[in-house]
């Protein structure tokens, strides 16, 4: 890809990549580092990655970098999420979105990632499979399980409210 | 033996086994026979695997057991028209199930547009190489220009200082000898004593003309000494002020006792080093010390950049990465105000 195409990919995908990572790990600073690392890797392979494949390359790279960090810092993230849960429980839920995002945080990382890729970016099953390294069937299964969990969580909260 | 065939023996155990077999040749033959019995899994694929797969259209009806699966497929957009019709027919018969479908529809996430990446411009790269010019050619030109500037700078700096100082009057050897015979007085005395015959020119002729300029306070005093006096008189100048060398006749040698002039006559000429030796000593010593390799273009480029940094009091660093074949795969230039790097074609 050319320099212009590289910079265009920054304009088009940096925000969406950042959103995807933030929603996954709930850490803006870490997410920023991941996005920067992703684009650094893209820059180092600018001659090899075509403009048509840059989006999937970016998300795939960011996903794997994120997974590596999650596995390394799993305990810290769980503690952080626990603290966030405790603080939220004391608040009144203002809308369904807030409940939904809380539910998303409770999902296993792989289910959370595939659902975010599906809903935020509109990736197909095979595209998600390519990004995450899963098979298409596995992607469908994870989405199915994730949706079921989210629906049950919403139903439970709304019943309480 | 079985553990050996399974690859479970460590090197020590394997060596012991081999030693045992060497001591028992009859068992060794049996062992070798077993070593050849080793099954490897064949890789076979079922060709019509996709035909075995089913879709939602293959469900004859929607039931309580598969209803949730249909709901999820509906929000994922996986239902064909026929399957959608079956789902809504089921909901018509079971209206309390509509709430379930609504909850599933709410699980569809929407991106939060307010979250943006901070510092987007920092991710972008800016072209330093003009378009239409190959990178190699451009970088080679830059390196050549830097080398040329540094070489010219250091060549001019090699000119000895003695050649650049103006106003120095070369003094003949005879004058030096004459000077050595002079006696000087202490600094408290405002005048110095000279022996007239001490002054000789390069032809060993006695200097007849000695200009002595009286001080401002001694204008009316007569100047002692007589040009025609050939006796060995001591001539006491009243006061000698600095006289511009340019105003002196060429055969007069001015000796300044209060402001001694440096003699540069017949100073030994330093042997000039060759350019290569000079470069090696001044520029490349540090670079050579770092690397045991012979000098190459990269070494020269590094030395040139070092010279530029010295002249401009800056700290621009140049680095490269080599691939497995020893060729440069990435090139970068870093400084306080900018940073540039680019991967190169493999």
Radius of gyration of chain A: 17 Å
**What do we call the CATH homologous superfamily of the largest domain in chain A?**
Winged helix-like DNA-binding domain superfamily/Winged helix DNA-binding domain
Tally of extended strands of chain A? 0
**What does the main sheet of chain A amount to?**
none
Total tally of structural domains of chain A: 2
Q: What characterizes the major β-sheet of chain B? A: 3 strands, antiparallel
Indicate the mean pLDDT of chain A.
85
Strand order of the largest sheet of chain B: 3-4-5
**How many strand elements of chain B?**
5
Distance between the termini of chain A: 52 Å
CATH class call of the largest domain in chain A: Mainly Alpha
Kindly report the average pLDDT value of chain B: 68
Q: Which key terms come to mind for this protein?
A:
heterodimer, A: 161 residues, mainly alpha, Rna Polymerase Sigma Factor, Chain: A, 8 helices, 82% helix, B: 346 residues, 4 domains, three-stranded antiparallel sheet, two-stranded antiparallel sheet, 12 helices, 36% helix, 6% strand
Describe the structure.
The complex is a heterodimer of chains A (161) and B (346). By secondary structure, chain A is mostly helical. Chain A folds into 2 domains: 1-74, Rna Polymerase Sigma Factor, Chain: A, CATH 1.10.1740; 82-161, Winged helix-like DNA-binding domain superfamily/Winged helix DNA-binding domain (Arc Repressor Mutant, subunit A), CATH 1.10.10.10. Chain A is built from 8 helices and no strands. Chain A has helices at residues 3-25, 28-44, 54-72, 74-89, 96-106, 109-121, 125-132, 136-160. In chain B, helix 8 (135-157) crosses helix 12. With 346 residues, chain B is mostly helical. Chain B has helices at 2-5, 11-23, 25-35, 49-52, 67-76, 81-93, 98-106, 135-157, 173-180, 275-282, 285-290, 297-312; strands at residues 194-195, 234-235, 317-322, 328-334, 339-343. Chain B contains 12 helices and 5 strands. The two termini of chain B are 50 Å apart. The chains are: A mainly alpha (161), B mainly alpha (346). Chains A and B meet through helix 1, helix 2, helix 5, helix 6 and helix 8 of A and helix 5 and helix 7 of B.
């Amino acid at each position: 890809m050319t320099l212009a195409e590289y910079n265009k990919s920054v304009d088009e995908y940096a925000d969406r990549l950042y959103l995807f990572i933030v929603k996954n790990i709930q850490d803006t600073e870490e997410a920023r580092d991941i996005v920067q690392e992703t684009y650094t890797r893209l820059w180092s392979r600018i001659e090899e990655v075509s403009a048509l494949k840059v989006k999937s390359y970016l998300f795939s790279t960011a996903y794997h970098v994120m997974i590596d960090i999650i596995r390394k810092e799993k305990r810290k993230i769980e503690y952080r999420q626990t603290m966030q849960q405790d603080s939220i429980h004391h608040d009144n839920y203002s809308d369904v979105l807030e409940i939904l995002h809380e539910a998303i945080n409770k999902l296993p990382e792989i289910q959370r990632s595939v659902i975010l890729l599906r809903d935020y970016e509109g990736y197909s099953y095979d595209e998600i499979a390519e990004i995450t390294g899963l098979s298409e069937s596995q992607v469908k299964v994870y989405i199915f399980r994730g949706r079921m969990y989210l629906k049950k969580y919403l139903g439970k909260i709304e019943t309480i409210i | 033996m079985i553990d050996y065939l399974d690859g479970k023996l460590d090197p020590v155990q394997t060596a012991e086994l081999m030693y045992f077999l060497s001591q028992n040749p009859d068992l060794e033959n049996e062992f070798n026979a077993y070593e050849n019995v080793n099954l490897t899994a064949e890789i076979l694929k079922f060709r019509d695997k996709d035909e075995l797969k089913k879709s939602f259209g293959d469900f004859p009806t929607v039931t309580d057991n598969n209803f949730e699966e249909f709901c999820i497929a509906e929000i994922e957009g996986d239902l064909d028209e026929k399957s959608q019709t079956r789902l809504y027919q089921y909901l018509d018969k079971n209206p309390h199930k509509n709430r379930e479908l609504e909850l599933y529809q709410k699980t569809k996430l929407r991106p939060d547009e307010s979250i943006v990446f901070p510092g987007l411009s920092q991710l972008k790269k800016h072209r330093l190489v003009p378009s239409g010019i190959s990178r190699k050619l451009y970088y080679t030109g830059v390196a050549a220009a830097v080398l040329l500037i540094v070489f010219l700078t250091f060549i001019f700096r090699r000119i000895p200082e003695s050649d650049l100082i103006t106003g120095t009057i070369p003094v003949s050897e005879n004058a030096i000898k004459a000077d050595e015979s002079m006696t000087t007085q202490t600094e408290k005395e405002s005048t110095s004593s000279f022996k007239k015959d001490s002054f000789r020119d390069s032809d060993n002729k006695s200097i007849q003309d000695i200009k002595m300029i009286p001080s401002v306070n001694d204008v009316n005093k007569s100047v002692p000494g007589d040009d025609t006096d050939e006796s060995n008189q001591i001539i006491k100048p009243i006061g000698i002020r600095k006289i511009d060398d340019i105003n002196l006749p060429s055969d007069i040698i001015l000796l300044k006792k209060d402001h001694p002039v440096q003699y540069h006559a017949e100073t030994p000429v330093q042997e000039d080093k060759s350019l290569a030796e000079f470069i090696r000593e001044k520029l490349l010593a540090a670079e050579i010390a770092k690397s045991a390799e012979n000098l190459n273009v990269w070494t020269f480029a590094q030395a040139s950049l070092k010279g530029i940094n010295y002249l401009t009091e800056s700290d621009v660093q140049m680095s490269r990465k080599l691939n497995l074949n020893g060729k440069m795969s990435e090139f970068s230039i870093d400084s306080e105000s900018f940073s540039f790097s680019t991967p190169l074609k493999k």
